[in-house]
Amino acid sequence: MEVVVASALGMCFGVKDAIELAAGLAREGPVTILGALVHNPQVVADLAAAGASTAHGPDDLPAAAPVAGDRARVLVTAHGAAASLKARLAGRGFDVRDATCPLVDRAHRAAARLAAEGRHVVVVGRADHVEVRGLVGDLPDATVLESEADLERLAGRPRLGVLAQTTEALDRVLALVARIRERFPRADVAFADTVCQPTKDRQLAVAALVLQVDAVVVVGGPESNNTHKLVARVHALGRPAWRVGSAAELRPEWLRRCRRVGLTAGTSTPDAVIDEVRRALEALPACPAATLAPAPATEAAEAGAA
Fold first, then answer.
1. Active site residues
2. In CATH, what is the architecture of 103-195?
3. The pTM is what?
Protein backbone atom coordinates (compact mmCIF):
# COMPACT_ATOMS: atom_id res chain seq x y z
CA MET A 1 0.00 0.00 0.00
CA GLU A 2 1.28 3.45 -0.91
CA VAL A 3 0.99 5.83 2.04
CA VAL A 4 0.83 9.61 1.61
CA VAL A 5 1.55 11.49 4.83
CA ALA A 6 -0.12 14.84 5.48
CA SER A 7 2.15 17.87 5.39
CA ALA A 8 1.13 18.81 8.95
CA LEU A 9 0.17 16.18 11.51
CA GLY A 10 0.79 14.94 15.01
CA MET A 11 1.87 16.62 18.20
CA CYS A 12 1.75 20.38 18.52
CA PHE A 13 4.14 22.45 20.62
CA GLY A 14 1.60 22.89 23.44
CA VAL A 15 1.28 19.14 23.90
CA LYS A 16 5.04 18.60 23.73
CA ASP A 17 5.66 21.31 26.33
CA ALA A 18 3.00 19.85 28.65
CA ILE A 19 4.51 16.36 28.43
CA GLU A 20 8.00 17.71 29.08
CA LEU A 21 6.78 19.62 32.13
CA ALA A 22 4.90 16.62 33.53
CA ALA A 23 7.82 14.25 32.97
CA GLY A 24 10.21 16.68 34.63
CA LEU A 25 7.96 17.04 37.68
CA ALA A 26 7.62 13.25 37.93
CA ARG A 27 11.40 12.90 37.98
CA GLU A 28 11.58 15.34 40.90
CA GLY A 29 8.97 13.56 43.03
CA PRO A 30 5.25 12.83 43.42
CA VAL A 31 2.87 14.84 41.25
CA THR A 32 -0.84 14.43 40.51
CA ILE A 33 -2.22 15.45 37.11
CA LEU A 34 -5.73 16.89 37.25
CA GLY A 35 -7.31 14.79 34.48
CA ALA A 36 -5.66 13.42 31.35
CA LEU A 37 -2.68 15.65 30.57
CA VAL A 38 -3.49 15.30 26.86
CA HIS A 39 -6.10 13.18 25.12
CA ASN A 40 -3.86 10.29 24.16
CA PRO A 41 -3.83 6.98 26.07
CA GLN A 42 -0.21 6.15 25.23
CA VAL A 43 1.02 9.46 26.64
CA VAL A 44 -1.09 9.03 29.79
CA ALA A 45 0.26 5.50 30.28
CA ASP A 46 3.87 6.64 29.81
CA LEU A 47 3.46 9.39 32.41
CA ALA A 48 1.87 6.95 34.85
CA ALA A 49 4.84 4.62 34.38
CA ALA A 50 7.13 7.58 35.12
CA GLY A 51 5.36 8.12 38.44
CA ALA A 52 2.78 10.82 37.67
CA SER A 53 -0.61 9.86 39.12
CA THR A 54 -3.91 11.13 37.71
CA ALA A 55 -6.99 12.47 39.50
CA HIS A 56 -10.20 12.56 37.49
CA GLY A 57 -11.36 15.75 39.19
CA PRO A 58 -10.71 18.04 42.19
CA ASP A 59 -12.79 15.82 44.47
CA ASP A 60 -10.52 12.86 43.65
CA LEU A 61 -7.37 14.62 44.78
CA PRO A 62 -5.73 13.37 47.96
CA ALA A 63 -5.53 15.58 51.01
CA ALA A 64 -2.86 18.21 50.46
CA ALA A 65 -0.49 16.71 53.03
CA PRO A 66 3.17 17.75 52.87
CA VAL A 67 5.36 15.68 50.57
CA ALA A 68 9.02 15.62 51.65
CA GLY A 69 8.42 18.88 53.48
CA ASP A 70 6.74 20.57 50.54
CA ARG A 71 3.14 20.99 49.48
CA ALA A 72 1.61 18.23 47.35
CA ARG A 73 1.91 19.14 43.70
CA VAL A 74 -1.01 19.24 41.27
CA LEU A 75 -0.55 19.80 37.54
CA VAL A 76 -3.24 21.49 35.44
CA THR A 77 -3.42 19.85 32.01
CA ALA A 78 -2.71 21.30 28.56
CA HIS A 79 -6.46 21.87 28.17
CA GLY A 80 -6.42 24.48 30.91
CA ALA A 81 -8.75 25.17 33.83
CA ALA A 82 -10.73 28.04 35.27
CA ALA A 83 -8.71 30.49 37.35
CA SER A 84 -11.22 30.02 40.17
CA LEU A 85 -10.47 26.27 40.23
CA LYS A 86 -6.72 26.91 40.43
CA ALA A 87 -7.33 29.35 43.29
CA ARG A 88 -9.44 26.79 45.18
CA LEU A 89 -6.71 24.18 44.82
CA ALA A 90 -4.08 26.62 46.08
CA GLY A 91 -6.40 27.47 48.98
CA ARG A 92 -6.54 23.78 49.90
CA GLY A 93 -2.76 23.82 50.23
CA PHE A 94 -1.69 22.35 46.90
CA ASP A 95 1.34 23.52 44.96
CA VAL A 96 -0.44 24.18 41.65
CA ARG A 97 1.66 23.82 38.50
CA ASP A 98 0.25 24.76 35.10
CA ALA A 99 0.71 22.98 31.75
CA THR A 100 -2.00 24.97 29.97
CA CYS A 101 -1.21 25.42 26.28
CA PRO A 102 -0.46 29.10 25.52
CA LEU A 103 -3.09 29.04 22.78
CA VAL A 104 -5.73 27.80 25.23
CA ASP A 105 -4.63 30.57 27.59
CA ARG A 106 -5.15 33.01 24.70
CA ALA A 107 -8.74 31.76 24.41
CA HIS A 108 -9.24 32.36 28.16
CA ARG A 109 -8.04 35.94 27.73
CA ALA A 110 -10.37 36.44 24.77
CA ALA A 111 -13.34 35.19 26.81
CA ALA A 112 -12.46 37.52 29.69
CA ARG A 113 -12.08 40.48 27.30
CA LEU A 114 -15.46 39.86 25.65
CA ALA A 115 -17.13 39.53 29.05
CA ALA A 116 -15.47 42.76 30.23
CA GLU A 117 -17.04 44.50 27.21
CA GLY A 118 -20.45 43.56 28.58
CA ARG A 119 -21.08 40.83 26.03
CA HIS A 120 -22.74 37.48 26.60
CA VAL A 121 -19.94 35.01 25.88
CA VAL A 122 -20.66 32.22 23.40
CA VAL A 123 -18.19 29.35 23.06
CA VAL A 124 -18.42 27.14 19.96
CA GLY A 125 -17.36 23.68 21.05
CA ARG A 126 -18.22 20.58 23.05
CA ALA A 127 -19.89 21.40 26.36
CA ASP A 128 -18.49 18.26 28.01
CA HIS A 129 -14.90 18.91 26.93
CA VAL A 130 -12.43 19.85 29.67
CA GLU A 131 -11.15 22.86 27.70
CA VAL A 132 -14.64 24.29 27.30
CA ARG A 133 -15.47 23.71 30.97
CA GLY A 134 -12.37 25.72 31.80
CA LEU A 135 -13.24 28.51 29.38
CA VAL A 136 -16.68 29.09 30.90
CA GLY A 137 -15.73 28.26 34.48
CA ASP A 138 -14.98 31.86 35.47
CA LEU A 139 -17.93 33.41 33.62
CA PRO A 140 -21.15 34.11 35.52
CA ASP A 141 -23.18 33.54 32.37
CA ALA A 142 -22.12 31.90 29.10
CA THR A 143 -23.54 29.68 26.36
CA VAL A 144 -21.79 26.73 24.75
CA LEU A 145 -22.91 26.42 21.14
CA GLU A 146 -22.55 22.87 19.84
CA SER A 147 -24.78 23.20 16.75
CA GLU A 148 -27.42 25.38 15.12
CA ALA A 149 -29.98 23.72 17.37
CA ASP A 150 -28.55 25.77 20.25
CA LEU A 151 -29.09 29.16 18.56
CA GLU A 152 -32.42 29.83 20.27
CA ARG A 153 -30.59 29.98 23.60
CA LEU A 154 -29.14 33.30 22.41
CA ALA A 155 -32.51 34.99 21.86
CA GLY A 156 -32.84 38.35 23.60
CA ARG A 157 -29.11 38.90 24.05
CA PRO A 158 -28.29 42.37 22.65
CA ARG A 159 -24.48 41.97 22.72
CA LEU A 160 -22.69 38.71 21.99
CA GLY A 161 -19.03 37.75 22.08
CA VAL A 162 -18.21 34.54 20.21
CA LEU A 163 -15.05 32.47 20.47
CA ALA A 164 -14.25 28.80 19.89
CA GLN A 165 -12.70 25.78 21.49
CA THR A 166 -9.16 25.81 20.13
CA THR A 167 -9.56 22.46 18.36
CA GLU A 168 -12.72 23.27 16.41
CA ALA A 169 -12.74 23.38 12.60
CA LEU A 170 -12.58 27.04 11.62
CA ASP A 171 -15.02 26.71 8.71
CA ARG A 172 -17.65 25.26 11.05
CA VAL A 173 -17.07 28.08 13.56
CA LEU A 174 -17.38 30.75 10.87
CA ALA A 175 -20.57 29.14 9.57
CA LEU A 176 -22.12 29.25 13.04
CA VAL A 177 -21.07 32.89 13.53
CA ALA A 178 -22.76 33.72 10.21
CA ARG A 179 -25.92 31.93 11.35
CA ILE A 180 -25.90 33.89 14.62
CA ARG A 181 -25.73 37.17 12.71
CA GLU A 182 -28.43 36.02 10.31
CA ARG A 183 -30.73 34.80 13.07
CA PHE A 184 -30.21 37.87 15.30
CA PRO A 185 -29.57 40.80 12.91
CA ARG A 186 -30.06 43.43 15.62
CA ALA A 187 -27.51 41.90 17.99
CA ASP A 188 -24.03 43.39 18.28
CA VAL A 189 -21.87 40.33 17.58
CA ALA A 190 -18.10 40.31 18.12
CA PHE A 191 -16.00 37.33 17.08
CA ALA A 192 -12.58 36.30 18.39
CA ASP A 193 -10.85 33.64 16.30
CA THR A 194 -9.41 31.34 18.96
CA VAL A 195 -9.01 28.21 16.82
CA CYS A 196 -5.33 27.41 17.27
CA GLN A 197 -2.87 27.49 14.37
CA PRO A 198 -1.82 23.83 14.70
CA THR A 199 -5.49 22.81 14.30
CA LYS A 200 -5.84 25.07 11.25
CA ASP A 201 -2.64 23.67 9.75
CA ARG A 202 -3.81 20.08 10.14
CA GLN A 203 -7.25 20.85 8.72
CA LEU A 204 -5.69 22.53 5.66
CA ALA A 205 -3.21 19.69 5.22
CA VAL A 206 -5.92 17.03 5.29
CA ALA A 207 -7.93 18.98 2.71
CA ALA A 208 -4.93 18.78 0.38
CA LEU A 209 -4.34 15.16 1.29
CA VAL A 210 -7.77 13.91 0.18
CA LEU A 211 -7.01 15.05 -3.38
CA GLN A 212 -4.18 12.52 -3.58
CA VAL A 213 -5.61 9.39 -1.94
CA ASP A 214 -8.45 6.88 -1.95
CA ALA A 215 -9.03 7.00 1.83
CA VAL A 216 -7.52 8.47 4.99
CA VAL A 217 -6.50 6.98 8.31
CA VAL A 218 -6.47 9.44 11.22
CA VAL A 219 -4.40 8.49 14.27
CA GLY A 220 -5.51 9.79 17.64
CA GLY A 221 -7.16 9.02 20.96
CA PRO A 222 -10.91 8.52 21.25
CA GLU A 223 -11.28 11.61 23.45
CA SER A 224 -9.34 13.91 21.10
CA ASN A 225 -11.65 16.56 19.66
CA ASN A 226 -9.26 17.69 16.93
CA THR A 227 -8.77 14.07 15.82
CA HIS A 228 -12.51 13.61 15.35
CA LYS A 229 -12.69 16.91 13.46
CA LEU A 230 -10.07 15.60 11.02
CA VAL A 231 -12.21 12.51 10.40
CA ALA A 232 -15.27 14.70 9.87
CA ARG A 233 -13.31 16.93 7.48
CA VAL A 234 -12.31 13.99 5.31
CA HIS A 235 -15.90 12.73 5.18
CA ALA A 236 -17.14 16.21 4.24
CA LEU A 237 -14.67 16.25 1.35
CA GLY A 238 -16.01 12.97 -0.01
CA ARG A 239 -13.43 10.44 1.09
CA PRO A 240 -13.75 7.57 3.60
CA ALA A 241 -11.80 7.96 6.83
CA TRP A 242 -11.18 5.91 9.94
CA ARG A 243 -9.80 6.89 13.33
CA VAL A 244 -7.41 4.50 15.04
CA GLY A 245 -5.56 4.81 18.32
CA SER A 246 -2.80 2.44 17.25
CA ALA A 247 -1.80 0.03 14.50
CA ALA A 248 -3.60 -2.77 16.35
CA GLU A 249 -6.93 -1.06 15.61
CA LEU A 250 -6.43 -1.09 11.83
CA ARG A 251 -8.78 -3.37 9.89
CA PRO A 252 -7.41 -4.44 6.49
CA GLU A 253 -10.92 -4.81 5.05
CA TRP A 254 -11.38 -1.04 5.29
CA LEU A 255 -8.70 -0.54 2.64
CA ARG A 256 -9.07 -3.61 0.44
CA ARG A 257 -10.25 -1.46 -2.49
CA CYS A 258 -7.60 1.24 -2.02
CA ARG A 259 -4.33 1.73 -3.84
CA ARG A 260 -3.14 4.85 -2.03
CA VAL A 261 -4.06 5.82 1.54
CA GLY A 262 -3.53 9.10 3.35
CA LEU A 263 -2.21 9.35 6.90
CA THR A 264 -2.73 12.15 9.38
CA ALA A 265 -2.90 12.46 13.17
CA GLY A 266 -4.32 14.61 15.93
CA THR A 267 -2.26 17.07 17.93
CA SER A 268 -1.84 14.71 20.91
CA THR A 269 -0.51 11.73 18.94
CA PRO A 270 3.13 10.71 19.52
CA ASP A 271 5.42 10.30 16.51
CA ALA A 272 6.13 6.69 17.46
CA VAL A 273 2.44 5.79 17.18
CA ILE A 274 2.14 7.53 13.80
CA ASP A 275 5.19 5.66 12.52
CA GLU A 276 3.78 2.36 13.76
CA VAL A 277 0.53 2.94 11.87
CA ARG A 278 2.41 4.03 8.74
CA ARG A 279 4.46 0.84 8.71
CA ALA A 280 1.34 -1.28 9.21
CA LEU A 281 -0.38 0.46 6.29
CA GLU A 282 2.63 -0.01 4.02
CA ALA A 283 2.54 -3.73 4.76
CA LEU A 284 -1.03 -4.04 3.44
CA PRO A 285 -1.66 -5.13 -0.17
CA ALA A 286 -2.82 -2.43 -2.58
CA CYS A 287 -5.72 -2.76 -4.97
CA PRO A 288 -4.43 -2.41 -8.57
CA ALA A 289 -7.52 -0.46 -9.63
CA ALA A 290 -8.77 1.52 -6.67
CA THR A 291 -12.48 1.88 -6.08
CA LEU A 292 -13.46 4.08 -3.19
CA ALA A 293 -14.83 2.13 -0.24
CA PRO A 294 -17.71 3.67 1.74
CA ALA A 295 -16.91 5.09 5.16
CA PRO A 296 -18.34 2.86 7.88
CA ALA A 297 -21.47 4.29 9.47
CA THR A 298 -20.16 3.89 13.01
CA GLU A 299 -17.09 6.02 12.46
CA ALA A 300 -19.03 8.60 10.45
CA ALA A 301 -21.53 8.93 13.26
CA GLU A 302 -18.72 9.19 15.84
CA ALA A 303 -17.04 11.99 13.87
CA GLY A 304 -20.28 13.87 13.39
CA ALA A 305 -21.05 13.76 17.10
CA ALA A 306 -17.60 14.98 18.19
1. 131
2. 3-Layer(aba) Sandwich (3.40)
3. 0.87
